[in-house]
Specification:
Helices cover 32% and strands 20% of the residues. By secondary structure, the chain is an alpha/beta fold. The strands form two sheets. Strands 3, 4, 5, 6, 7, 8, 9, 10 and 11 form a nine-stranded mixed sheet that branches. It has a two-stranded antiparallel sheet with strand order 1-2. The longest helix is centred in the N-terminal third of the chain and has 29 residues, at 64-92. The two termini are 32 Å apart.
């Protein structure tokens, strides 16, 4: 997201480089943010020991090759995210949207700028400062709730249904992906935007890697937090059983991050055309779900 169109003051630039980091923003001609450089150019996740925050790049500090690589990688990531949002806005303008694992708020604010309403972000980290900054800068009315998905109870507290739910690269960190998919489906009244890895087989399989890569203190069986995924057969069967009648894949494009990085991931816009989906979750009965719908 290019913030230069909002004519940031010096103080706003200072604030932006303090609260924005992981997602791809252009703050000024000299300062950008984003994780994509690390994804493409560092096999270990890109923990940099120089410059500013590990995901904030200042042209005056970085080596020229690092700046150029970081700029290109994060523009590609932003182009990819903007494409997702454009597809959602084209079909669901004026609808409400929730982003599960919203981080700095790229999808939440981006959706609001495209005419969606009641846009809410959820994340286990405290991103209230970045969401507040982006809201005040752009003039959109969005909400942040510091809530995380609990793999023991299979819910996110205070997550009321929205028309569209975004789950971008989060299911890969969830030990109970079928329960997670069921929960976010129960919160998506019209559509689910799912960006996730998918195994290339029609068999019903779940894939796990070594545990505790990111969440060191998590105990079995909720410790599998790395590249968790479903096979194509299981994912599409699950989406059908969860009430999504139409599934549109947003295909990879040359302007996105490289195909070698993209790998087996898919971007699926899963829509309800004929039937609502009701699922009982702790503390939510069918009568309440009907009222929300």
């Amino acid at each position: 997201m290019d913030l230069r169109r909002f004519n940031l003051s010096y103080d706003q630039i200072v604030t932006a480089r303090q609260c924005l980091n992981y997602q791809p923003f252009i703050i000024s001609d000299e300062v950008i943010t984003g994780v994509a450089y690390s994804w493409l150019h560092h096999q270990d996740g890109g923990r940099r020991t120089y410059g500013l925050h590990e995901f904030v790049f200042d042209r005056a500090i970085e080596a020229e090759d690092v700046w150029n690589q970081a700029y290109d990688a994060n523009r590609r990531l932003a182009t990819m995210y903007d494409c997702f949002l454009d597809h959602v806005a084209e079909r669901f303008r004026g609808c409400s949207l929730a982003d599960m694992a919203c981080n700095n708020g790229y999808f939440v604010v981006g959706a609001a700028l495209r005419g969606l309403s009641k846009c809410t972000g959820f994340d286990h980290g405290d991103y209230s400062s970045s969401m507040s900054f982006l809201s005040s800068l752009t003039g959109v009315d969005v909400e942040f709730r510091q809530r995380s998905y609990d793999s023991w109870t299979h819910i996110v507290k205070d997550f009321e249904p929205h028309d569209i739910v975004v789950a971008s690269q989060i299911m890969q960190h969830i030990s109970d992906p079928l329960y997670f998919l069921s929960f976010i489906a129960s919160r998506a009244k019209k559509a689910l935007l799912l960006f996730t890895g998918m195994g290339d087989t029609d068999e019903f399989l779940i894939y796990y890697q070594q545990p505790n890569r990111f969440y060191k203190d998590a105990s079995f069986p909720v410790c599998f937090d790395n590249d968790v995924g479903l096979s194509r057969g299981l994912l599409f069967k699950s989406l059908d059983m969860l009430g999504f009648d139409e599934i549109v894949e947003i295909p990879w494009q040359e302007s996105w991050l490289s195909k070698s990085w993209y790998g087996s991931q898919k971007v699926l816009l899963c829509m309800r055309k004929k039937r609502p989906y009701f699922h009982h979750h702790r503390g939510v009965d069918k009568r309440t779900m009907l009222r929300w719908l």
